């Protein structure tokens, strides 16, 4: 569930960034309200994800997905340029996010394998 919460948080991060741009310095009411709501929702779902994930992994993945998503949608909705250099940088970010996910999965599995089962040990001694 933590990774799902993190993905939801990242979607709100993208909405937050795009709404901030559309708010024109908080002079347009609708996008300004959306900015505040998306920021609150993003942080809420991030906090749920961080109950399980390491903060270094969770925060990095959240900002990475948010950054890439913001660039993609800003290109589509606001006509921002997308150069080859930007694409390469975003591919590196995506690679880093996937690497963190993989490292977290592997280390989480290793912890499960090496951690003693306290319920079984207690039952055997009783």
From TrEMBL:
For whether the record's keyword set contains Transmembrane, the answer is yes
From the Swiss-Prot or TrEMBL record, state where the protein is found. Answer: Cell membrane
Q: Which residues form a coiled coil?
A: none
Q: Which GO terms describe its biological process?
A: response to antibiotic
State which gene encodes it: sugE
Q: What is its main location?
A: membrane
Name of a matching Pfam family: Multi_Drug_Res
**Cross-referenced InterPro entries, in alphabetical order?**
EmrE-like, Small_drug/metabolite_transptr, Small_multidrug_res
Protein name from the UniProt record: Multidrug resistance protein Mmr
Superkingdom, according to UniProt? Bacteria
The positions making up the signal sequence are: none
**What residues form the membrane-spanning segments?**
33-50, 57-78, 84-103
**Mode of membrane association:** Multi-pass membrane protein
Keywords on this record?
Antibiotic resistance, Cell membrane, Membrane, Transmembrane, Transmembrane helix, Transport
What organism is recorded for this protein? Answer: Nocardia camponoti
Q: Which family does it belong to?
A: Belongs to the drug/metabolite transporter (DMT) superfamily. Small multidrug resistance (SMR) (TC 2.A.7.1) family. Mmr subfamily.
Q: Name one GO cellular component term.
A: plasma membrane
**Annotated Gene Ontology MF terms?**
transmembrane transporter activity
